[in-house]
Every structure is written in C-alpha cells, then in structure tokens.
Amino acid sequence: MSLNDLDDEVAALLDDADQRYTSSRRRLISALQAGDGPLTITQIVATDASLPQSTVYRNLTILEEAGVVTRIVTSDDFARYELAEKLTGHHHHLICTACGDVVDFSLDAAVEATLDKALDGAAVSAGFTADSHRLDLLGTCRDCAKA
Amino acid sequence: MSLNDLDDEVAALLDDADQRYTSSRRRLISALQAGDGPLTITQIVATDASLPQSTVYRNLTILEEAGVVTRIVTSDDFARYELAEKLTGHHHHLICTACGDVVDFSLDAAVEATLDKALDGAAVSAGFTADSHRLDLLGTCRDCAKA
DNA sequence: TTGCTTGCAAATGATTTGCACTGCT
DNA sequence: AGCAGTGCAAATCATTTGCAAGCAA
Known about the structure:
Two copies of one chain form a homodimer. The first copy, chain A, has helices at 3-16, 23-34, 41-47, 53-65, 85-88, 109-125, 142-146; strands at residues 39-40, 69-73, 79-83, 92-96, 102-105, 129-140. Chain A is an alpha+beta fold. Chain A folds into two domains: 1-89, Arc Repressor Mutant, subunit A (Orthogonal Bundle); 90-147, Ferric-uptake regulator, C-terminal dimerisarion domain (Dna Ligase, domain 1, 2-Layer Sandwich), CATH 3.30.1490.190. Strand 6 of chain A pairs antiparallel with strand 6 (129-140) of chain B. The first copy, chain A, binds a DNA duplex through helix 4.
C-alpha cells in the first residue's frame, strides 16, 4: 500500500470513529509505517522527539479503537504498536528472545489455509468463536546470534 | 503426566537449577496443574489464599528460570503462568477477547509439522535462528458469546 | 550456624489521567 | 465561541525489592 493510499485509509477509519486526523496522529502513522515491525513507545518517541509520551500513549489508544493500529505484547515489559492488518495485510512476527526486537514475516497462502482450517476445527470443539489467529516465531536474530 | 511424575520432574528441574522444592513452590505447581489453561497471579492467590502475592511473584520467577513454568502475556495487563511445555506437551491457546480467559488446545501433528517446516523456511530467509513457535487463536468463548 | 525462603511494606516503572492551554471548525 | 487535542505533572497499578524473621541443610 502506498503512503497516500495508507493515508486515505487511515483518514477514513478515523472519520468512521468520529476522530480527527491531527498532526500528532499523522506523525504516529508515519513512524509506524517506517519501521519493519511493531515499535515500542520508546522507539516512537526516539524517532520523533517532538511527540510527548502522553500524547503518544493517548493517540495510540485512539488509533487502536479506530482499528488503525494494533497493540502487541510480546514478553518484555514494553507494549508495541503496529499498523492494523487491515492496512498492512496478514503477517506474523519473528521475536528475538535476546534483544526483544520484532520483525514481520509472512507465510505461504497454502500454509495459512491449512492452519485456518485446523484452527477452526479446534475452536468449534472448544465452543469457541474464532476471530483471528496470532503466530509468532521465537528465536535469535542475526545480530544477537553474532554476539 | 501423573501428579507424581510431574512432581518428580519439577523436583529434578529445580535441583538442576540449585533451587529447593519448598512448600510454597509445591502449592504453586499444584495450582497451575489444576487450571485448564494459564493462570494470572490473581487467580492463583484466589485459589490458594495462604500464598502472599510477593511469594507468588518471586517463586514464579524462580520456577520460570528453572524451566518449570512459562510466563505468558496475552494482551490485558495481567501476566499468566502455566507449566512449561516440557511438562505438559506442546499446545496452543484460545484467548477470549471479551473476558481475557485462556484455555489450552492442541493441533494435529501433521498440521504442526507443516507449520514448523514453513516457519523454518521463513526464519532462515530472515537470518533468524528459530527456537519455538507460539500460536494463539483469538475469539469469543462460549460464556461470553451467550452474554 | 549459615544461608535460602518468606511476608510485610515500601519502591519502581510503564501507563493513565487531571487540568489548563492551544488550535480546529 | 465551543469543543477536541495537547502537554505537563501527578496518580495508578502490576510487579519488584529491602529487610527482619523463619526454616532447612
């Protein structure tokens, strides 16, 4: 998705949620768009120092409610945020257990299909209404493997 | 795994880590064993009121370092703990996005095999050393669907 | 004894919120 | 003008830790 299309999508989602697309929010979207995986609040503030932490927290909450971003918790104490799958497409995360960094990756459509079918079966037998799945790969990233 | 076997396994793991198998720790294991999914600290304290919160936190950390339990963060603000897969076998989680409750489930071995192969491929091309995967199904549990 | 464990209460740190100010509309 | 958004600083709340007393080797 191009930057302009993304912008339009975000604007539409915010409008649906009766929220404005302010400059702080634009800057947030742009910071998230720039990363190659979900970002922590600290990383976002470091990227764009003109954004105070409280504004980042508050706007990410609003953007999450509007369906623009997704909040992710891996294991460490910092929540991470990324653009919603609606905007970026379905994907998964490589989580480095050494440094905590998270990088996106995708799976073959055939594998996803197999997986979804199996998950649906499991959900049904547990009396569960399946909504979506979340798949992470835990391991060590290239940089940490070197060290 | 029977209760006694579990006990022996835990004892061995703690011994390897130069840790004692105290009565607090036994009570924790027993509480975790009783649940049908990972438990929050609050749930554990509610189950066994003789355990002070600080002891629960401290011992769960030690049990985690010894490889006896695993800490899980879903999305809400409470961490959850479960017995390590080494003890219970590989499984996944059904996470209710309404009430936050988590229940275990398993997938067919064939699906797991397909998945692992696909994940290994993705890891390699990202320069990542894969360790394990984590797969959750998000949705609504039977109780919350009723409401 | 000697050191690990416990339990209370106080400290920490990510996240949230009150309030006064600024800027859209 | 009138209300939403912002930024600072103070408040919250899960989690961690200091310390004195209890227990195991």
